[in-house]
Design brief:
Blueprint lengths: L6 H45 L2 H4 L12 E10 L4 E7 L1 H12 L3 E4 L12 E6 L4 E4 L3 E5 L6 E9 L3 H10 L20
Antiparallel strand pairs: 1-2, 1-4, 3-7, 4-5, 5-6, 6-7
């Protein structure tokens, strides 16, 4: 039999310390999860704030992530018959004109997000001399390092001329005359 008069007090103190330690661990994990969840939003905000300075505003569509020369281009679309994404190379002699036309679009802003359930149905891929590439689906631009299928960076990009100006340019360079677009976009109905 234990005759320690402080035994009950020790048990109570150990219990309180265990509960307090558990609560601290839960709070710490909660804070870590919140930081991880909002990290993407903070990065997007940083990109948007960066976009406000003059040097960043001088960037064009093809120089947003890298200043290198574009050496090849392709477009992709969702083929409804096969339910596959089809890739088609744009002829090399048309790549420079495509880049010039794309860079003529004025970037209004980066960051933010729209409803994005339709993404990556139609779009383009441009490959730099370095082997790195960008893909764009009309709203989201993704930057890929050479040899990687996982994008290294991404940001939403909007043009002053609107999304359809981008699609009109890209559609001029399709091999088969295909009109690329946001698959859920409906053209405005003209009054008759």
């Amino acid at each position: 039999m234990n005759n320690d008069p402080n035994r009950t007090l020790k048990i109570v103190l150990i219990t309180i310390a265990s509960v307090f330690g558990g609560l601290l661990a839960i709070i710490g994990l909660g804070i870590l999860m919140i930081v991880m969840l909002f990290r993407g939003g903070v990065n997007a905000l940083h990109e948007y704030n960066e976009w406000q300075d003059e040097e960043a505003r001088a960037k064009t569509f093809t120089t947003y992530y890298e200043d290198g020369e574009i050496v090849s281009a392709a477009y992709f679309y969702h083929d409804t018959d096969s339910n596959e994404v089809v890739w088609v190379d744009i002829p090399e002699d048309r790549v420079e004109d495509l880049v010039t036309d794309l860079d003529s679009l004025n970037i209004d802003r980066v960051g933010g997000m729209k409803d994005y359930f339709y993404g990556w149905k139609d779009g383009i891929e441009l490959t730099y001399e370095s082997g790195n590439s960008i893909r764009f689906d009309g709203e989201q631009i993704r930057y890929y390092r050479a040899g990687s299928s996982d994008f290294a960076q991404q940001i939403y990009m909007y043009f002053e001329e609107g999304d359809e100006a981008f699609w009109e340019i890209v559609s001029e360079y399709t091999v088969d005359g295909r009109e690329l677009h946001n698959p859920f976009w409906t053209p405005p109905v003209e009054d008759t």
